[in-house]
Structures are given as structure tokens and as C-alpha cells.
Amino acid sequence: MGVKPFRFGVSLHHNCGAEEWAKKCRRAEELGYDVILIPDHLHMPAPFPSIVAAAAATERVMFGTFVLNAAFWNPRLLEREVATTHRLTGGRLEVGVGTGYAKAEFDEAEIPFESPGRRVRQLDTVVQRLTASFADAAQWSDCTSAPRLMIGGSGDKVLGIAARHADIVGLSPVVRVDTPEKWRALPAETVEERAGYLRAQAGDRYDDIEVNLMIPAVVLADDRQAAAAFAQQTRTPYLTLEQVLDAPAGLIGTPEEIADQLVQRRERYGVSYITVHEEFMEPLAAAMAVLEGRAS
Fold it and tell me: Which of 76, 184, 189, 238 counts the highest number of beta carbons within 10 A?
């Protein structure tokens, strides 16, 4: 199979009123984003009503959950939420799901924070329910098709489930740590190994899977070396300067340089679906425009 075309998504996670929400969604569509994504964290917008409101304000952009915490959802009730939202958005929904990782949110929601193995089994249960629902053609007769399924995660067991069932697999370029910064950027070699593991697990299915990468930071800079050095000194002292320049967790440089980095990452990791947080919606759009210009 040939190289997959790029798709770009933006994760909207700041609470706001209806007018501001619609404005943000329209701006994402105007900038050329393919997907508007909503996370599943407490103190952030609720995924499904936010998606329905976004659909009313836009025309072509897709929507996704990025990603649902499987432990927060009863599988049968989730199936109802998905079916209703898919219909109300005119078939523009993609469903992302993962194991959940933030113990504090489990505690606040009074939901037991189970062992990693049990959370993976809950994810598998939810995935099995959703895939069975998506295979029921009669349920989606009023839409062009059932939603596509995304599974997010980087562990062996989660990637194994994703390799068997997912249409989209979300890789993470960061790892959660028990330190004040909470997250650490992974070196390129680690992400490359995870991408290779997914490919091996998927086998013949791999060509049908779209691989996503959430990029936490996009820095527009005329001097890429200087910007990377500043990031290394202030945010990622555990990486060398060369590792920062190569790290999948960041995009640094001019729009043209960032466009080059995106192409290189697609070649290296097989990632063609790129996502950023809303704070970086405008900077990434500048590189998106460069890629579009090269293709025209």
C-alpha cells in the first residue's frame, strides 16, 4: 500500500460558552483541520454534547473522542451514546477509547483505580461491544457507515488489542511519570520501537490501520537550533539537544521545516494522522498550508 495522506486533528479541551465553542470549531475547520477531538477528563468539556454542538457549527470536519476512558463507561450505555451522536452529527463521528491513567480522576469520580491489567481488560470489553455494534449494518442504515474506532495507548497489551480491532491507533510520544512535570518526552527510538511493535502485531491488517501521533508542542522559530536548545534547558533536561531535535513530542522550526519533519515522521513511524492541542492549532496550520502547497 502507498503512503497514506496526512490528516490533522485538534484537541479542544478548554471549557467555554456556546458562542466561543462554535467560534473555535469554525476556526479549526477554516484552517483546514480534518478532525476536532474532545478528550475525556474531568473538568474538561463532556465529549458527546460538545461534539453535537460542534457539528451544528460546522459543515465538513469530522469529530472524535480522544480518548474515552473505558473505565468510566458502561459498555451498553456507551453504545447508545455513540449511536445517537453519530446520527446527530450526520455520520461524522470517530470513537477513540483507551484505558485511562489519571488516578486522581478515578478517585474524584469514586471509580476504583484498578490494576493496569484490569483496566486493559475493561478496554477490551468496551472494544468488543463497540466493534459488535459497528458490525450491525442495520443499526447504521440512516448513516453512510458506522463510526471508525481509534484505540490509544503504547503498551504491549493495548497495542495488541488495537492491532486486532482498531481502524486508527494513537501512539503517544510521552510517558507519564511521578514527578512534578507529570510527563516526559520519549526519545525517537522508543516511539519507533512501539510503531514497529504495532506493525508486527497487526500483520496483514497493518495497511488498513491509520496511525495517529499526538504532538504536545509546536514551536514556530526562525532558528530551530536555538529554540531546541531553549526547550532542552527549560523543559527536557533529561534529553540531549540532538534528542530534542529528533523527539516526536515536538515540532520546532519554520513552517517549511515543520512540514519536512512531518514527512520524515510519516516515513519513520508510519504516522499520517497528526493531532495537537488547541493552543497549537494556529502554528500547526502554518505547516499544513506548506504541505498543501507542495501537493497542489
Answer: 184
- Tell me the angle at which helices 188-202 and 255-269 cross, rounded to the nearest 10 degrees: 40
- Residues in contact with 92: Cβ distance below 8 Å, sequence separation at least 6, in sequence order: 55, 61, 62, 63, 86
123-181 confidence digits (pLDDT tens) = 999 999 999 999 987 777 778 889 999 999 999 999 999 999 999 999 999 998 877 77
Quickly count: other Cβ atoms within 10 Å of residue 137's Cβ.
9
Q: What is the distance, to the nearest Å, from the Cα of residue 35 to the centroid of all Cα atoms in its chain?
A: 10
User: What 3-state DSSP class applies to 68?
Assistant: strand
Strands (DSSP E) contained in 20-85 are 35-38, 62-65, 68-69
Per-residue pLDDT tens digits for 61-96: 999 999 999 999 999 999 999 999 999 999 999 999
Report the distance separating Cα 65 and Cα 97, nearest Å. Answer: 7
Residue linked to cell 485511562: 100
Instruction: Give the orientation angle of helix 156-165 with respect to helix 116-134, to 10 degrees.
Output: 10
Contact (CB, 8 A) for 40 and 126: no
Distances (CA, A) of 289 to 200, 258, 276, 281, 293: 34, 11, 16, 12, 6
CA angle 249, 252, 257 (to 5 degrees): 120
Give the residue-averaged pLDDT of 246-269: 98
